[in-house]
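OP here, attaching both records as promised.
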Amino acid sequence: MQKICLFFSILLLAGAGNAHADEVFLVTMNTSSISGDSGSLDFSLSPGAGSDQSLTATVYNFAGGSYGGSMSQDGNATGGPVTSGSPLTLLANSASQLNDDFETFDYGNSLSFLVSLSGPALTAPDGIGTSSCEFDFETFSDEPGSDPVLTDDPNGISGLIDISPEGIVSSAGISPDATVASVPEPASLWLFAGSIGFFGAAFVVRRVGELSNR
């Protein structure tokens, strides 16, 4: 029984390593203090200096507030407007330093969205870059995007996700009203549930065997 448990433990750990290839984050922000105001939001992804690897950020499941009717994009930005429910994809590589989606926006009481990160810079980092890749979420109180709101950052950054040249991911809510939190992948949850089920079954079999030998 111990050998079987060890075998399945190795399989589960190996599967868990593969399941964490991509990273998903939930960004939430309390905007009740400016509810009803018009402004703008910016989603951007920049590659690390000296990096030769690409990184993709997909923004989706946006909720709260409403699209203001105007969108502009730079670099490798496709899809959107994300604030009206259409997924947005940003691709950062050595050939594209500015990858940006800018949308006018009418604030509600809150907003939230998911960010999925994928690509070699995350899944197979080579450590060559001299600075991190960075996803930024910026909030402004005006449609041109010159007046930051709900954040003290001069560039309007309210939340960010940082990917080091070694592929280490960290996140932060720059605004006191924003949170950026990692979300477990469904595959990881299934693996966790499966491991609990397996070891639970193994424990029951062992107990039945012990009772029958008494």
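Record two, same layout:
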Amino acid sequence: MRIFLCILVSGIIANDITIDDLDDGLTHLERKYRRLESKLFDLEDKLDNPTKKCGQISYWKKIYEQSSPSDFARGCDMERCYKKSGNNFIDFRCLEDLEEYHFKIIWDNGAHTMEWIQKVHPLSVTDEAVGLVFVKIDGKDVISETSFNGLSISSNTLTESAGTLLDGMGNHSYWWFSIGYKSLHHGGNPADYANSYVAQKTEMFIKLKPTKDDLDLYYF
């Protein structure tokens, strides 16, 4: 706009531009301003109403990572589960007030993955099979053939020097699909039971939709 006005002023001084030309130019700028203002209002409306298009966005949030045995997750419960020790951490604070839990585990930086939806909070049940919507391992639907029963508090979690916080074996003494392991199993973390896969690094994510506070980060 500044350049355009400079051209107008120069034109007036040189007597090349008439008052009518100036009126036409200002009218053109005003129309552009109105269109820009309308777009800004639309953007503001989307930010203020996350249930619209912006509310359909979802993202994966990392809530756990572990690459060495540790009892750092000791004491995790429904009230508080935010622990850290070196590179190992667990943060279940964003699991509150969800209707279902869409999780993903990545083993060894993507060597293998598991994705599933369960209906209950992992820390709300102990050593039980929970309701599952689907289970995929390495992208393949395996709900009808997997031994995975959803994450719940492991029966081994009270052991001082062994076991894990959570496992996916339900009412079984095995602790495969381990989250928060305190000891090694065959040199690593017991991951996928069907393939006897033992991982050196385990990461866990939950799929979330952005809240109004998240969208405010982009408000300007």
